[in-house]
Amino acid sequence: KGQKWDAGYQHTGYFLEWIETSYGEGSVRRVNETLMNKKYDEEAFWTGLFGKQVQELWDEYCKTLPDEQPVEDTDDKKDEDERPVDVHELQKGGTLEKNSCVMATPLDMASRHDLEDTFNAMRPHFEDKETEQNWQLREKDTAKLRRITVGNAPKVLKDTYQAGMKSLLEGIVKVINSLRTTLSASGCDLVQDMAKDKIPGIDSMAEIVLPHLVKLCASTKKIAAAKADATVNIIIAHISYNIFLMKLIWSACEDKNVQPRKYATGWLKTLVGKHRENKAVFEKGEGLQLFEKCLKKGLADSNPD
């Protein structure tokens, strides 16, 4: 209480979770989609979506909170969770939700040798199955990979960085597939950074990672499913067009689970929006036919949402 709605990602996350519960499933997704497609004007934005200004929504939310709440007061959490939410930053490809990808602090590497040593030290942690002994090491290494990815390595040490990330890709997939929600989310955040920064080799790496993310979208854990959905959307918005993307969306449209079918609509919208100035890309191969099939499948879906 007493804070502004955008005082930090943790505050905003719980606020949006309340909106999702109070104003119906899909509310946060509508927020994300509107951010991606319209210029942000605070009054018009929130009134248009929910009929109320954001301060009114925040006041309603605060009334549901107890008078006193326990506050985590660790320096490590404070820097990340209490960083003010930059809506314009989110419009550039991020998502606004409880587990939004908070920008990592860049870590610049001094030399090719230093980068190789870093990758070599991490590699054993990602081998074999996840255990009580290695999962925290994986989480720590994933956070460090995010920092390296937004640092100088992808540009200054391009070949070494690309080779190292490819060697760890199987391990990154294991992190994404983890049953520990926080670990899985950290893997999704890493892939989001890789896509946004268009790291060397991201197109081919995305083809390996995307099927696992689509599978995660069917998770019964709402946070994990929403994180996977946001990650797929960001990848589609930043990588080059390939017929593989249309086939992936079509496979999601045919999924027996409702969630991937619902998310597929947003992915298709993102794909079309990204390439709307070059519609010829869809006319190659099966692109146009798959696009039509996705539309027809969605319109005929038995799920009312």
What's the SSE blueprint?
Elements: H1 9-22, H2 27-37, H3 42-50, H4 54-63, H5 75-81, H6 87-91, H7 112-122, H8 135-149, H9 153-156, H10 158-176, H11 181-196, H12 202-216, H13 222-238, H14 243-253, H15 258-274, H16 287-299
Could you give a quick summary of the protein structure above?
Helices cover 64% and strands 0% of the residues.
Task: Tell me, briefly, the overall form.
Answer: globular
Low-pLDDT sequence parts: 68-83, 88-100
Whole-Å distance between the termini? 34 Å
Rg, nearest Å:
20 Å
Helix content: 55-70%
Describe the model.
By secondary structure, this protein is mostly helical. It is built from 16 helices and no strands. Helix 14 (243-253) packs antiparallel against helix 15 (258-274). The radius of gyration is 20 Å and the shape is globular. Mean pLDDT is 83; it is low at 68-83 and 88-100.
